[in-house]
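Figure 3 (text version): structure tokens given as input.
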């Protein structure tokens, strides 16, 4: 059976196919054009980055210079404020420590100071009442090792007292340095004038002026050296002492041996005093004995003479007494 095709359907499908093919071709063309554009955009972005990197580096460098001009970053400014480079400080401290052995503690102190690069400026040791020793040391340590040495010295025994002080002499140091520079320039000017002087009176006057200015310069240099020494090395005065001897426990009162010793001491003392007293009165006793003996002899002789010289009632002399 023959089927008849309708002529309108095929004519309608062809325009649709042509339209779809056109749309596909247009999409492909748009995608091809977009790829170069995106590549060009990427390359342009890379070029912008390459060009912007030096600009950002320059900006960062400028920011870094600005930070340095204002004192650096906050952490750097904090460190700089904590330890200013142009500050000159004189530090001193005094420690009093009670130790078990003064000799050992003094050896530890000397070792600590010498190990830190310092020196022992003075040392004096004395024994008190033959019971304990005391020592007085003057130590000089670098400023950087000041706190560490103080801590080590305080740990050698029982810390009794501690005092410390810090004096800022930055203005004085700067003033002395400025005066030294001025004085040196003045000395140089006077020397130039001496080289040009022709009269003897001018030379004599300039020599006196040069001597005076050189003396002032030497005095300023001595002040500068003293300030440098005191600001470079801190001074620590250390006093070491031993505890005083105390009585043993259980020895509260005297015992039998103590009483015996005390009685014997009193007995010997009494004998000594008695001997001294006898020695003192012995000459007087001897003289008194001699006088008493002479008096007795004279007394015996005087009554016999009186009896022989006295006459009896009848005028005759009495008979001598019977022996």
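Below: residues designed for each position.
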């Amino acid at each position: 059976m023959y089927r008849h095709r309708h002529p309108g359907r095929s004519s309608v499908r062809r325009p649709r196919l042509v339209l779809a093919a056109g749309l596909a071709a247009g999409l492909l063309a748009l995608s091809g054009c977009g790829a170069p554009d995106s590549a060009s955009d990427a390359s342009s972005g890379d070029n912008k980055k390459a060009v912007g990197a030096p600009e950002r580096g320059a900006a960062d460098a400028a920011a870094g210079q600005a930070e340095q001009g204002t004192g650096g970053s906050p952490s750097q400014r904090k460190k700089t404020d904590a330890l200013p480079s142009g500050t000159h400080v004189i530090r001193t401290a005094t420690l009093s420590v009670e130790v078990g052995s003064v000799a050992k503690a003094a050896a530890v102190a000397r070792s600590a100071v010498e190990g830190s690069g310092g020196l022992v400026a003075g040392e004096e040791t004395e024994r008190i009442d033959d019971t304990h020793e005391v020592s007085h040391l003057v130590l000089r340590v670098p400023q950087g090792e000041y706190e560490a040495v103080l801590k080590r010295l305080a740990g050698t025994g029982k810390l009794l007292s501690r005092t410390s002080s810090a004096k800022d002499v930055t203005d004085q140091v700067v003033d002395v340095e400025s005066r030294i520079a001025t004085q040196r320039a003045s000395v140089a000017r006077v020397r130039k004038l001496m080289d040009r002087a022709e009269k003897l009176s001018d030379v004599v006057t300039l020599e006196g002026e040069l001597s005076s200015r050189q003396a002032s310069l030497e005095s300023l240099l001595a002040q500068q050296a003293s300030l440098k020494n005191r600001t470079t090395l801190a001074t620590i005065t250390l006093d070491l002492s031993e505890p005083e001897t105390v009585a043993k426990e259980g020895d509260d009162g005297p015992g039998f041996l103590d009483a015996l010793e005390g009685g014997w001491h009193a007995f010997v003392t009494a004998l000594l005093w008695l001997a001294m007293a006898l020695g003192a009165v012995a000459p007087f006793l001897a003289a008194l004995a001699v006088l008493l003996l002479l008096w007795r002899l004279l007394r015996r002789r005087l009554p016999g003479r009186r009896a022989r010289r006295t006459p009896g009632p009848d005028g005759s002399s009495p008979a001598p007494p019977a022996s």
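The CA atoms of residues 150 and 236 lie 8 Å apart.
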